[in-house]
Amino acid sequence: MVLSRGARFFAGAIAVICVVFVGPSAPSGSVFAGSVPVVAAKDVVPNRVMTWNLCNPCEVSDVDRAAEIAAYAPQVVGMQEACVRDVERIREYLQRLHGLVYHVEYGTVLQSWGRCGGVPWNPGAFGQAILSAAPMTDRVSVEYPDGGSEDRGYMAVTTTVAGEPVRVFNTHLAQRRQEGVRAAQTEVLTTEVARLDRAIVLGDFNAVPDAPELAGMWELAADADPQCHPSLTAVCEATTDWQSKFDYVFLRGIAPVDHRVRPTEVSDHHVLHTDLDVA
Fold first, then answer.
1. Which residues are CB-neighbours of 226 under 8 A, at least 6 positions away?
2. Is residue 16 within 8 Å of 9, Cβ to Cβ?
3. How many helices (H) and strands (E) does the chain have?
4. Alpha carbon distance 144, 109 (integer Å)
5. Which residue intervals of 102-146 are DSSP H helices?
6. Order of strands across the sheet with 247-252?
7. Quick count: other Cβ atoms within 10 Å of Cβ 176?
8. How much is the pTM?
9. Are 144 and 188 in contact (CB under 8 A)?
10. Per DSSP, which regions of 74-161 are E strands?
11. Beta strands in 36-96 (DSSP E)
C-alpha cells in the first residue's frame, strides 16, 4: 500500500514522538545502540567465583566485558584495574542485556584521570570492585602503606557463595620488578586472612607461584587449581597474554570442585573461574 505524502509525514511524526518519550532501546552509553539483542534471563552459578583484571587503559567496550562475565555467570566476580564508571556500565549491561542482577562494592585506591577519564579536577576512581549476586556486608577497603609505582590495596566483603556466608578478598599487588613492595603488601593481606577459618582471596598478584613474596599466602591457602603450587615441578596454567600466572583464586578452608582459565580478546589477563564446595 502506498501512503500519501500527508500520511507518511504523520507516521514519521509518531515515530519521533515514540523515541522522545520511550528513549533508545540500548542501555545508556552503549556504542552499539540498537545492535545488541536482549537475551533471555539466566541464573548465576551459585558456587562459582571469578577473578579478572579488566586491563586499563585499554580501548575495550563495557558491553563486551559484560558479555564475558555473563558467559560464565559467576555468583561472585572480583575485578582489578576497575574504573567505577566502567563497573557501573558493566553491571547495567549484565542486567539489561543478560538478565543477571548483581550488587556492587568498590575498593578504589586512586583518583586517575589518565586511567578512568573524567576531568582533571574530578577524575574517575580506580582500583578493585566486587560484583555479587547476593548482598554484601562488612565491606573494608585498605590501601597498602607502600603501593610501589602506583597506589594499590585490597578490599573485603562478606557475602554468600553456595548458600554459605564467606569472606571474600580482592587485591591487586604492585607491578612487576617490585618484589620487596609486593612482599610487604602480602604481609598486610595475610594478616587479615589468617584471622579467618574460611576465606576466598581473588586477585592479580603480579607474581608467579614460586615467587618468594607469595610464600606467606601459600602458608595460609591453596590455589583453586589443585595442580598449581609453589614447587618448581608444579603445573600452573598461564593467566596472561605473556604466558605468566599472575592471577589467583586462593582458598582457605574451602575445597575446589572445578577450575577453568579462559583467554579473552578483551583483556591481557585471562578469566579465571572456580566452582567451590563451601560447606
1. 256, 259
2. no
3. 6, 13
4. 9
5. 113-116
6. 137-143, 153-161, 164-172, 199-204, 247-252, 222-223
7. 14
8. 0.85
9. yes
10. 74-83, 103-112, 118-119, 122-132, 137-143, 153-161
11. 45-53, 74-83
Q: Cis before residue 57, ω within 30 degrees of 0?
A: yes
| 167, containing H or E segment | strand 164-172
CB 259 within 8 A of CB 274: yes
- Find all residues with CB under 8 Å of 236, minimum gap 6, and list them: 208, 209, 223, 225, 227, 228, 229, 245
Residue 219 CB neighbour total at 10 angstroms: 9
The one-letter amino acid at 127: G
What is the residue whose three cell numbers read 547495567? 92
Tell me the Cα Rg of the chain.
Answer: 21
Alpha carbons within 13 A on the beta-carbon side of 94: 27
Question: Each residue's pLDDT tens digit in the chain (279 positions)?
Answer: 444 444 444 444 444 333 333 333 233 333 333 334 444 457 999 999 999 999 999 989 999 999 999 999 999 999 999 999 999 999 999 999 999 999 999 999 999 988 898 888 889 999 999 999 999 999 999 999 999 999 999 999 999 999 999 999 999 999 989 999 999 999 999 999 999 999 999 999 999 999 999 999 999 999 999 999 999 889 999 999 999 999 999 999 999 999 999 999 999 999 999 999 998
Sign of the CA dihedral running 29, 33, 36, 42: positive
Q: Are strands 247-252 and 255-262 parallel, antiparallel or unpaired?
A: unpaired
Residue 6 dihedral angles phi and psi, to the nearest 5°: -65, -40
The residue with cell 556492587 is: 104
